[in-house]
Amino acid sequence: MTNWQDENVHIRRMTPEDYDEAYALWERTPGMHLQSLNNTYGGIALLISKNPDSCLAATDGDGKIVATVLGATDGRKGYLYHVAVDEQWRGHGIGTTLINRVQDVFKANGIVKVGILVLVDNVNGQEFWKHQGWKTRPDVIYFDHDL
């Protein structure tokens, strides 16, 4: 586990009951894409139920959610979703800590590769991930299909 502490921030497992507060954070986070059918309460609750150790929330001293990360795996590769840090809390290492903790969970479960989707027009998000040492995949084009 990452050795990071801030007496004003607590990191814990995310629960379905956090949905409304987390969704409000995601809505005010530039570059967050929420149009998918998977972003309903039911979709997020399902993801959390299948990945309870890798879906995390950071809260301030009042218990308000200031950051989130949803980590999920298909059994061979991990994925990060909804990595968001409230604007006033950026620059304190909270996002990096959340990511590292999820990667620790993935490693403990034998996952050796992690991916994230970043919107083309989310330049700040792209810079964040590059700063974290992540690389783009020029060899793939992502497709999806709503059922």
Describe the 3D structure.
There is one protein chain. This protein has 147 residues and is of the alpha+beta class. The chain has one domain (10-131): Gcn5-related N-acetyltransferase (GNAT) (Aminopeptidase), CATH 3.40.630.30. The chain is built from four helices and five strands. The protein has helices spanning 19-27, 41-50, 94-108, 123-131, and strands spanning 10-13, 55-59, 65-73, 78-85, 114-116. It has a five-stranded mixed β-sheet, with helices on both faces. It is globular, with a radius of gyration of 15 Å.
Name of the level-1 CATH class: Alpha Beta
What is the number of beta strands? 5
Rough outline: globular
- Which CATH architecture? 3-Layer(aba) Sandwich
Provide the residue-averaged pLDDT: 92
Identify the CATH homologous superfamily. Gcn5-related N-acetyltransferase (GNAT)
Low-pLDDT stretches: none
First-residue to last-residue Cα separation = 38 Å
Major sheet attributes: 5 strands, mixed
Write the H/E string, N to C: EHHEEEHEH
Based on secondary structure, the structural category is alpha+beta
How many structural domains in the coordinates? Answer: 1
Number of helices: 4
